[in-house]
Amino acid sequence: MASLNRRVRRAAATAxxxxxxxxxxxxxxxxxxxxxxxxxxxxxxxxxxxLYQSAYSERNDVLWATASVGQPxxxxxxxxxxxxxxxxxxxxxxxxxxxxxxxxxxxxIDVDDEHNTVWVTNTRNNSVAVYSQRTGRHIxxxxxxxxxxxVVVDEKRDIVWASSFGDGALVAFxxxxxxxxxxxxxxxxxxxxxxxDERTGTVYAADHTNSRIIEVAPGxxxxxxxxxxGGPLSVALSADGRTAYTADQTSxxxxxxxxxxxxxxxxxxxxxGAKSVAVDPCSGRVLVANRLAGSxxxxxxxxxxxxxxxxxxxYPNHVTVAGGSTAxxxxxxxxxxxxxxxxxxxxxxxxxxxxxxxxxxHPGC
Length: 365
Fold this sequence. Notes:
This protein is mainly beta. It contains no helices and 30 strands. The chain has strands at residues 42-48, 51-57, 62-69, 78-84, 91-95, 99-100, 102-103, 109-112, 117-122, 127-132, 138-143, 148-154, 159-164, 169-174, 180-185, 191-197, 202-207, 212-216, 224-227, 232-237, 243-248, 253-258, 263-269, 274-279, 286-290, 295-300, 305-311, 316-322, 326-331, 341-347. A hairpin with a 3-residue loop joins strand 28 (316-322) and strand 29.
């Protein structure tokens, strides 16, 4: 991902007006945590109302983000799928979801670079949907995913998994035919965040309701249940697939879970309301967005310590890592001049490589 490693452009992004009341704002000044000079480490700007999650496409060098306005029980007043230049943080295009009585609002997101598509969850419509990365065209909607929360793509097996929080299920779709191919239900569970090990095809879900991880392997007859920290909302995997990390909202921690032993190896306090977790493929460090603390924690999982804390705008909601040690955090701060939520780009310091096992380094490292 060479383009993301270019020097940060300092020119302000041109303001773009979006339909449905979602307003984009020009680039703001850079902000930084832990005393790092402005512009060299952290760049943030107000972007759009209702930001929720983001995902990076290596194929297109594009950051995709979802935005939906309207908190239950209020109706959705607008929703957009945003195509963002990761270098300038400028919105290149905004696509409006279809309306069938109500807006098919978009929330969770992942990209399928093999088929050049974007998958999203339509949480309030109990469905998932597929869009073209090339044109932004809505391709299909698939129903019967009750309170669909997150989605993750296994490109190697042409499978897309979605978490069905409302009925405790993990639902798999064929990414070529777009049809449902598997459904695994764990009674009484509340699956939220997802991660997939593409080497094995095993999918992992954070069970927010029961403070555990749900593990579903290909061909397995029953899921494996692994304890973790309090109220996990998000899950990520180490490069070698031996370790899972959960962002534990209730306990304000990240749990380091040994998947072979099926136990928490260590718990690291990161900040109040830990909500989203991702792994830097270059260093192996773990990034945790702390919603109520308004920060991003960079964790050394082997030492069990927070090595850096970066201030973000209020209520960071999701973190994703793109290629060579660049993180993007979307927030729900409403701090823009017209109430926009923000996007923060963080250039991660390289530090000492924490990778282990035989996994190859990310090509962008």
